[in-house]
Amino acid sequence: MPTNEVAPLETPTERPGWKRWLRGSSSKAPHETVVKIDGRHRQTHRSGPLHSVRFAFTREGFHFVFLVAFVLVGAIIRNVNLLVVLAGILIGMLFFQWRLCMRTLSQLSLVRKVPSHSQARRPFRVTLQLRNHKKWLGAWSVMVQDRLMEIDRSNKPLTDGYRISTVVDRAPPRSTSVVEYECTCERRGLVEFGPIQLSTIFPWGLLRSHYRVNESDQCVVHPTLGHLKPGWRELFEVRRYGSQQTRAQSGSSEGEFFGLRNYRVGDSPRWIHWRTTARRNEPVVRQFERQENIHACILLDLYRSPDITNQEAMSAHEDLVDEAVEFVSTLANTLVGRGGGTISVAIAADTVSYVEKIQSRNHVVVLLDELAIVQSSKLADWRQGVQSLSNTLRAHPLMVVISTRPEEWSQRTIQSGDPTEWVLQRVQVRWIDVSQGGLERYFTRTMK
Amino acid sequence: MNTERVLKKLSIAVGVFAMAVAGLVGIGQQSLDLPLLVGSCVIASWIYTDWLKWIQLPRWLVYIMMIMGSLWAIMDYFSKSSFQQLFAVANLLIYAQLPLLFQKKSRRIFEQMGIFLLLELVVAALVNEDFVYGLALIPVLALGAWVMMLFAQYISAERAGIRAIDTHSIWKKIAIWLGLRPGIELDRKISMQLMEDGATMNTGLPWVQLGLPTTLAIAGIAIVYFGVAPRLSLGSYSTEGFASPVVGLNDRVRLDQVGPISQNLRPLLKVELQNSRTNEDYELIDPPYLRGRTLTEYAMGDRSSEWLPGDYSRIRYTDLSKDLLKLDATSSAFASDLDLVEARITELQMLETPIVLAPFFASQSFGDSSKLQFDRDDWHLIDTMEDPYGTPDIQRRKYSFYTLAFQRGKQTRFVPESEELAEESVPRARRAAAPYQQFGANQLSQLLEFRKEYFPGLIALRDRIIANSKIDASDPLDRALELENYFATNPEFSYTLNLTMTRDRSLDATEDFVVNQKRGHCQYFASALALMLRSEGIPTRLVNGLRPIEYNELGNYLLVRQSHAHTWVEAYFTKEQFTNSRSMPFPSNYKAGAWVRFDPTPAGVGSNSRRPLSKPPGATWDFAQQLWKDYVIQVDRSDRSSMLEGFGALTGEGYQDYFERFQTMSNSGRLPVIGWLIPRGDGGWVQWLRLIAVVVIAWLLWRNRGMLFRLPLPGISRRRKRQQRQVTFDFYKRCIRALEKLGWQRPDDMTHREFANYATAQAKERYQLQGADFPLGELTQAYCDLRYGQSEVVDPKKVEQLEDVSKRLEATLQQQRPLQNGKPE
């Protein structure tokens, strides 16, 4: 989460000639400023002159105005001086309601801190920092209303969204108040935050002034990470024949440090732990866990059958897709997290995307970003996925296909002369049909 | 924010406010019934509805109760007088409001209660005119403001939370409302939870920061509005009195009262006297006699002993606005020895009869008294502005006039006839030749009416008094003075308001008083003296009026109460009778004759006769009360503040006098600018254009005050310094934006300087930009110096230079092609 402090920036807007005169030069600040840092969004919005803050009567305000009009007319027609006084007081209240609720929202800046990515079913915290730049006047009862919406990769909303409102009771002049809320997304996807609306009905609830900040932030909700069962390694054990049995030695490392033990004959002198040997006065050597580098090549085939039409079936299908996605995410995380392993993933959905030779956490994030938003499709073409992995498969001729359809069905799609056939002839393919519970042997999902 | 906690506070606050508003109504009603009723219901609702939650009435039952309460109040409404109907309205509002207290509190309940309470405030303003209301209004409204603030806080707290966004169409909503579709539910694919911290906790309301200044400012707005609010007519709305006066003014004097007479201390008038020659407050030595109606006809006998106004057929009304005696004439021989005093009279209570009190006058001075006329025979005033439906004019009057009734702080005993002042009157020589000629035959017979057979005891007493005196029996004036003195000082007669004696119904009331009772109030004494003087053949009449004895030093006015009502006698003496008298010289300024005032009432508890002018305690409170009435309750079109005349000129006919006053001033050259601006009555559209132009220019100047303040004024140096800082940050921001357009964005873990180095290297590598062509390092250094405080103020020349550099950089970068992938590697 970005935490850099950014000073409020102010740019007097240049207005042409007579318009500038009409609008006046006493405007203090620009409407808003956007600062983008490292691809992750952080907005600094500062409401400027009063004309950018709008107001409307509340329901109570309408009642009040009606009564004021009644008192006003009655006072004038009947010459009732005490009613005139009362009307004056009520008008004064109305006037100050307008001024105060407009001034309350002026010179406020808002900083929203949203993590660039999160994980499904795990809470993440969104922080809204409301800074009051005014010198004298505080801000009270400022309602900060944030909007959340699930969107797809083309920024189209998937749901109506949610509105979360909280009230900052008090923001003293030249101070910052912080509001936080925790979000937990049940599913992977892309969540958009914003626009934010600042509003207040302070002090008497007769008018509501509001200021809308149209900028938005996005948070990628990665798939939930599950647990790999002990047998998961079998998936990537290559059946070697002939010259293929030659294993490449990893020269750079003996493996992961495991512990110390006494020296035995035959141990390499390089393994002696000299400090402990000196302390014990007998040779002690380091023990290493043998490093087993796995090079996984995964094709995630997210096919949705046209037969799935009703809501129930769609829901069940999406659950299968999620399981497949979560497995790939967990696998990538495990392989890269342990070190030494690599994974290449091709995803066949609407389009085919792929990430090759993922070795670092940063690359895992890229993969998870993609897995977060991928959806099953009728157009999923697994053959193109195979094509995209062909380079990787040259070095590691084992491909695990995680699919929502059975292997037999895929066989039917390959025709003679298809370039995919040529690739498949050279590699071992392990087809896991998720719809048939193919992942149960290797993977356990993390439920809530 | 803890919604429940705010709700509890709000429930308590609304209850307290309801009690306070009911208290305001109670002040006007002079009753504790409503405040006690509301108070007990509020406390019960706090305990049983809000705290224990035993009673939470369903909505339908509450509505039934509200309807029943309203019907009860409406029935009460039709059985009351027009003014008391306001109390029925107040009752209606309160009866309708009380059931709401016993409902489970929600926003709807508070809204409904708020409307009822505001309406109650309106009714309270209609039934109150006491200063206490003015004092109580401020804390009550402060309380109301607090309640509204809590309510706003409650609404905000209620709205806080998570909701699904409703994007359904209106048809879908109707379907949901009809139950044809499931409602809008929060989809649980995303769950959220607010984390409460210091900012969102209920930290209290900003009373200290906002309460006092806002209250003062609202009061200021209310005062200004009060000053500029248009008044459509003269006179202001006033409430009715509640205590029926017993001792007080009346059109007649009935001598048949029995039992104790209570005193009504309700203020009736305020009288201010000013010496018109010195323009200082006129200092009185003795309480004045304020004239009301004169009573000439005595219905005598055992059944009805009553003094009546007499024959109306000969009443000669004259418009008071017409000068009887020009002010110039007050320096004439008639007024040479008298003080010219301006009397300002303000009615504090609506008078049931249209009589307006006055001593005799020389010339009306100001005030809208066109509806007032005076009777030239006895100087009594009559208000001719009665409405055609016969209901009394509920508006109180204010008027003033000049009087020559005072001489060195004392009121003279002589009352002139109007002909003494009028130039067009009956020739004085003829009047002198024929005494009593000014009276008509009918009027004179009334003034002299006396039947001996009814008053043997009275005649015997008169003769005994005269016989026992050492005066010249042939001098009627001396005899009259002796008779007055006898009643006022002889211990045989005493003053009392406790008329518990048994009356002899076979006798006339005055005869019974003189012969048997010998105790009574001023009307008995005046009646006895008047009849004695008539028995002597002297034209005599009774005067019903007031004799105020309370003088408020703080406000320099006489406070006249109902209890100051008094009756005295006026007898007419010709010039010859005066001339022959040794005890009272004839006033040199009178020509034909004069009425002389006699006050035979002795001193006593409750008597207004022979009492000195007093300065009672509580003058400050009374003065405040009068101020409240003068400047709030009774303000009308004639009292508009000259301070706000400018507003008046724009409102047309309603402020015509302002316009004229301004016009006069502008013509005299005292306010030439305003005179240039104010539109003239003769269709001066040019002036209107001028006025509009001035307003527009003023508005533009206000809007552009920032530009104007760039002038080298010391008071704005701080602001200018801030502007410099803003400009300095601005150049860096523009530069960063330009880089962003080329795809270079500063990562989190990179400082500004590192980013500058990176970008400089990239620019050199990709665009062959270096040195002065890409001065990002220089810009960044300047930004960091400012941003992190190494320099407070940037040299303006340096800023300009940096601006140029940034513009060049911007221009240079804009010519370049953006990168495909802008993240620094």
Describe the structure.
The complex is a heterodimer of chains A (448) and B (825). By secondary structure, chain A is of the alpha+beta class. Chain A has ten helices and 22 strands. Chain A has helices at 17-23, 59-78, 81-105, 274-280, 311-338, 361-373, 382-388, 390-395, 407-413, 419-424; strands at residues 33-37, 40-46, 54-57, 108-113, 117-119, 124-132, 139-151, 162-171, 175-185, 189-193, 196-200, 207-213, 217-222, 227-228, 255-262, 284-290, 295-301, 342-348, 352-358, 398-403, 428-433, 443-444. In chain A, the strands form five sheets. In chain A, strands 3, 5, 7, 8, 10, 11, 12 and 13 form an eight-stranded mixed beta sheet that branches. Chain A has a five-stranded antiparallel beta sheet with strand order 1-2-4-6-9, with no helix packed on it. Mean pLDDT of chain A is 79; it is low at 1-16, 24-51 and 243-252. With 825 residues, chain B is an alpha+beta fold. Chain B is 45% helix and 13% strand. Chain B contains 26 helices and 26 strands. In chain B, strands 5, 6, 11, 13, 16, 17, 23 and 24 form an eight-stranded antiparallel beta sheet that branches. In chain B, a hairpin with a 4-residue loop joins strand 5 (267-275) and strand 6 (280-281). In chain B, helix 1 runs antiparallel to helix 2 (33-51) and helix 1 (3-29) packs antiparallel against helix 6. The longest helix of chain B has 29 residues, at 131-159. Chain B is elongated and about 140 Å long. Classes of the chains: A alpha+beta (448), B alpha+beta (825). At the A-B interface, helix 1, strand 1, helix 2, helix 3 and strand 7 of A face helix 5, helix 6, strand 1, strand 2 and helix 8 of B. Strand 9 of chain A pairs antiparallel with strand 2 of chain B, so a sheet runs across the interface.
